[in-house]
Design a protein that fits this description.
single chain, mainly alpha
Length: 66
Amino acid sequence: MRNPDGSRRRKFGIWIVVGFGATVLLGANAHLIYVATVSQSACVSHTRSGDAQNGAFSAAQSSCSP
């Protein structure tokens, strides 16, 4: 016959692991949202349109002032 305390302990352990995984997932998503809203990535250095060299790419439409 199984020990009921062992089964209860196993279920508790599983819920601890599931809770930890959900916490990590929510934390990672919160960090991604934070970085997306705080970062100022509108202007990044790149080769200007018309100044492209062999092997270099330029932005299709730059939002940066020259």
